[in-house]
Amino acid sequence: MNSRERILARVRRALADVPAGETPIARDYLREHGHRTVAETVELLAENLADYRAIVHRTDSAGLAGLIAGLLEKRGSASVLVPPGLDEGWLAATGVTRVADRGESTPHELDRVDSVVTACAVAIAETGTIVLDGSPDQGRRRITLVPDHHVCVVRVAGQVVSSVPQGLERLDPARPLTWISGPSATSDIELDRVEGVHGPRTLEVILVSED
């Protein structure tokens, strides 16, 4: 008997008295670490996003279009990739050329786009994580992995949760989930950090207070 067979035999013995299809799963872990108000949860999200070197902005619905236009102008963006379901009002204040999210776009074509603007599915405060699920206002996964600059809009407080378990409850596991904690980065053996290896070098997150 090899190691694999030995481990599987132990699993079978442990489950011998459990009816088929009724394997119990313990769900008694902490759902969040401590108790926070909504405002404290949003502050924790902003703090952890910044700790991951994302750039955090705050505005309300009325100021969102102007803020996005300013960020694209400051970046010097001549083109912006737009998911098909993105709120048209978000880009109403900018004259930057819009590039549609097309299935036939090649990686080289996407690489020539300066920026991408998306919404998100949920934002997790304790980990500083933004989750995209491929919804129409977020587009396909690769449009946020190839362009060098990603602007992501988070609705506060409706899309902000405290913990990963709370975030998972809002997500459909059958959808293409992309979990983003800061701009793409990696380090070599000497811990020299390099950003933009597997995604955008710059992640800007806009926390929009809901009306």
UniProtKB/TrEMBL annotation:
InterPro entries recorded: FTHF_cligase-like_sf (IPR024185), LUD_dom (IPR003741), NagB/RpiA_transferase-like (IPR037171)
Species in which this protein is naturally found: Streptomyces lomondensis
PANTHER family assigned: LACTATE UTILIZATION PROTEIN C (PTHR43682:SF1)
UniProt name for this protein: LUD domain-containing protein
One Pfam family cited in the UniProt record for this chain: LUD_dom
Domain LUD: 45-208
Domain of life of the organism encoding this protein: Bacteria
Gene3D superfamilies: NagB/RpiA/CoA transferase-like
